[in-house]
Design goal:
By secondary structure, the chain is of the alpha+beta class. It has 9 helices and 12 strands. Helices cover 31% and strands 26% of the residues. Helix 2 packs parallel to helix 3 and helix 4 crosses helix 5. The radius of gyration is 19 Å and the shape is globular.
Amino acid sequence: MRSEFDFIKNIKDKYGLGRIGDDCAILPKNDETDLLISSDMLVEDIDFRLDWTTPESLGHKALTVSLSDIAAMGGTPTFALLSIAIPEHLWPTDFLDRFYAGYHSHAKRSRVELVGGDVSRSPETLVIDSIVLGEVPKGGAILRSGAKRGDAIIVTFRLGGAGGGLRLLEQGERHSADLDSWKSILLDSQLRPWPQLGTGPFLQRLGFVNSMIDISDGLSSDLMHICQASGVGARINADKIPINLNLPSLTSDPNDQLDLAVNAGEDYQLLFTVPDDKVDELSSDMIGDDSHGLFTAIGRITPNVGVIELVRDNVSEILEPKGYRHF
């Protein structure tokens, strides 16, 4: 069965939609700036469950998913639109007030102004449509399609926390006053993720980042998006992948920890490539394997188009994209 990515590619090719294919649409704004537009839909029981989260956290996350797309292009968010289709049983409650409280708290911190949207009724489930606009210096948006053979592959911070939080939710864990701190951190990684709003524009200003994407579907899937858009392959090293420091408390199996870091989505970290000779220009206090490193180099771009290799214990295996898919 075709995936949503196959469907999007077919529509793009069939109708000649050349502006589709990155985290945001890029439109001309003026002589100095391009406009970025991101659109995301969240559907109850597909993208979230109301019994797992709070209205405030859901409002926060609904904004994060779109803010992260702006960051992944190296842009700065400016304005937002939000539309909601709400089932009748939620309308008389305080759900929407609390949802918008969480949304606006995040928007204020992110310096984003809500300028419009719509509210409608849904027959059964809650549906959220989030649109965020941003800006980036003219011609300076970082695309998925610029990776080149020999480039270093780099990720921000650590991976797998959101996947660990999802597993806890599936096991019945919820936030409570007596919850272990590591569980609370993992749950927040899933329910209240933060986009890399400062890091994206910083990388854009460096001027040598070749390609970038946010890790929303999972490292394996999002790296494949870069490979397909750039016409390249990749080789990553298992022992270099920065695993969330709380995952060992969830599972003692190193392979399980690695699986969460590689295949679970919604960490909203950034995955990008730079020429190998530019890695050292990322300041030494920002790149490394320790818990304080903002950036970690995990591999190299290869000429093996559309193939990702995972090197583990000096053995190379083909890494198939196993991140989240709607279909």
